[in-house]
């Protein structure tokens, strides 16, 4: 995570990313959904976040968007 190139994707908030890397949202029982177009680094970031939470011995679930999004009619 410390090697992420924020200059490559200036639309990404470095402050938000660093906050997510603290994994406080997991301890607070909150969810995060990472959205973006192809090639912006969602998978790389998710993998880094997965490793970070493992180093903190926290439990999380990875789910495909279609499994967590419910459309209300």
Indicate the percent of residues in helices.
40-55%
Based on CA atoms alone, the radius of gyration comes out at: 13 Å
H/E topology pattern? HHHH
Distance between the termini: 39 Å
The tally of beta strands, per DSSP, is: 0
By oligomeric state, this entry counts as single chain
Count of helix runs: 4
The major beta sheet can be summarized as: none
Shape estimate: globular
Structural class: mainly alpha
Average pLDDT reading: 76
What count of domains describes the coordinates?
Answer: 1
Residue stretches low in confidence (pLDDT < 50, at least 5 long) are none
Proportion of beta-strand residues:
under 5%
Defining traits:
73 residues, 4 helices, globular, mainly alpha, single chain, 0% strand
Please provide a written account of the structure.
The protein is mostly helical. The chain has one domain (about 1-60). Helix content is about 40%, strand content about 0%. It has helices at about 15-20, 25, 40-55, 65-70. It is globular, with a radius of gyration of 13 Å. The model has no long low-confidence stretch (mean pLDDT about 75).
